[in-house]
Amino acid sequence: MPISGEYEPSTSAWVADQVAEYEASGGTRANTLRDTGIPVVIVTMLGAKSGKVRKIGLMRVEHDGEYALVASKGGHPEHPGWYHNLVAHPQIMIQDGPEPRDYTVREVEGAERQEWWDRSVAVFPPYADYAARAGRLIPVLVASPDSEVPGRGMA
């Protein structure tokens, strides 16, 4: 089910601009992290406090149709705001190309977290540096397509 409501763009101008350009182009432009060449996806969610639609670009860490969402915040000691949004509202949309799809996220732990963490660091090696300076265990969430989540998707 598509996420609807009032959209509040990111207060970070470059994030808001990237989301707008990615969506306007069907994912053919603004689809990498700045000049790195590393692909990103657009994640649409509801705000935990505001209930407004929020959108961000995150590294594209995909495996077998699922995506890792790494709450690194560049190695800062606190979790990014979007992490709290996903915990409060785990139904999201991810756009990886022309059309967004519905997903449900869950935080992973233990061996599963390590497996997804390793995949994430392989895509974006700075995650390892972020973990070293964050002073916290960086959360890893996995987004599964709603058609594969029990009780969601097609019946």
Taking the alpha carbons of the first and last residues, their distance comes to 13 Å
Order of helices and strands: HEEEEHEEHHE
* CATH topology category name: Pnp Oxidase, Chain A
The major beta sheet can be summarized as:
7 strands, antiparallel
CATH superfamily: Electron Transport, Fmn-binding Protein, Chain A
Mind telling me the C-alpha Rg? Answer: 15 Å
Strand order of the largest sheet: 2-1-5-6-7-4-3
Please state the second-level CATH architecture: Roll
Helix content: 25-40%
List the topology elements:
Layout: H1 13-24, E1 40-46, E2 53-59, E3 62-63, E4 66-70, H2 81-88, E5 91-95, E6 100-107, H3 110-123, H4 126-134, E7 140-145
Antiparallel strand pairs: 1-2, 1-5, 3-4, 4-7, 5-6, 6-7
